[in-house]
Specification:
By secondary structure, the chain is of the alpha/beta class. It contains ten helices and seven strands. 46% of the residues are buried. The protein binds adenosine monophosphate (AMP) and manganese (II) ion (3 copies).
């Protein structure tokens, strides 16, 4: 059976390894089919694809698009996108253009909580100056000794109601799905278990997602517990969405699943790769 990992990050977004090093680590861990899915950015796909060719791995150009849905930020993966497609590239460029001002506001919010220099600190961690993410702030707060690790950070900071959270308008769900599909890709709803949404709200989201052309649901993710693998496999079947697997790898040791080490999909779902 082939080993798939269809969600990971490089230094083009908030990962700590270059695209080539992400691919090499995946190859070492036995991955057969890999997608790089940087936040709002596709510039790493070319390097990753070239390195994958050297290792004999199958590479899928990917992206993880930030979306505002009701009161929540959600993430939509685009798998198998054509990175040269201008409408997708333009849409993503527009998203990145808003990130620096947001990062400055995050810095101001942390300063009000007594933590200075966070914008500059986060920026030091960012490999792409258009792509300062909350993960970069989290790494700065760990470095400063404010929190012990990034997981602890997202409990006390950077999330709604806590210092370092700022409202931000990302694109709408239908726009993100249209860009992905326009570039020939499959839209997959990332880590549904992470969203603060009721059970009924999740069903409404999945209905809207599918109606807008979404085709997949990320069932196995490092953002999920094994119980959630089963829960989202059930929803994938119910909503006739294909099921995806991704480590959401960012950095060695930062989460409980390393790249390529996600468990297999539960029985009875149709994988996103069923007709690849
Ligand atoms: P942003 O796109 O700037 O809002 O940053 C989102 C990123 O922060 C995610 O892609 C993760 O890398 C990280 N993140 C968000 N929430 C958590 C969490 N609860 N635990 C660990 N990392 C998180
Ligand atoms: Mn991230
Ligand atoms: Mn995500
Ligand atoms: Mn991700």
């Amino acid at each position: 059976m082939k080993r798939y990992d269809l969600h990971c990050h490089s230094t083009w977004s908030d990962g700590v390894l270059s695209p080539a090093d992400v691919v090499r680590r995946a190859a070492k861990n036995g991955v057969d089919v890999l997608a790089l899915t940087d936040h709002d950015e596709i510039s790493g796909n070319a390097e990753a694809r070239a390195t994958a060719a050297e290792t004999g791995m199958t590479f899928i150009d990917g992206v993880e698009v930030s979306v505002s849905y009701r009161e929540e930020t959600i993430h939509v993966l685009g798998l198998g996108v054509d990175s040269a497609q201008p409408a997708l590239a333009a849409g993503l460029h527009g998203i990145r253009a808003g990130r620096d001002a947001r990062a400055r506001r995050i810095g101001e919010s942390l300063a009000e909580a007594g933590i200075g220099g966070a914008y500059e600190g986060a920026r030091q961690y960012a490999g792409n100056e258009q792509l300062i993410s909350r993960a970069h702030f989290a790494r700065y707060l760990v470095e400063q000794g404010v929190v012990s690790d990034t997981h602890a950070c997202f409990k006390r900071f950077l999330v709604r109601g806590k210092p370092g959270f700022v409202e931000h308008a990302w694109p709408a769900l239908d726009a993100a799905i249209a860009w992905i599909r326009g570039a020939g890709g499959m839209a997959v709803l990332a880590h549904p278990g992470r969203y603060r949404i009721t059970r009924d709200g999740m069903k409404e989201l999945l209905t809207e997602f599918r109606d807008a052309g979404g085709e997949g649901l990320e069932v196995v993710s490092s953002a999920h517990t094994p119980e959630q693998f089963v829960e989202y496999a059930t929803l994938a079947r119910l909503f006739e969405l294909k099921a995806s697997v991704g480590s959401d790898f960012h950095a060695p040791g930062e989460s409980w699943i390393d790249i390529g080490n996600a468990p297999p999909l539960p029985e009875g779902v149709t994988p996103v790769w069923s007709d690849w």
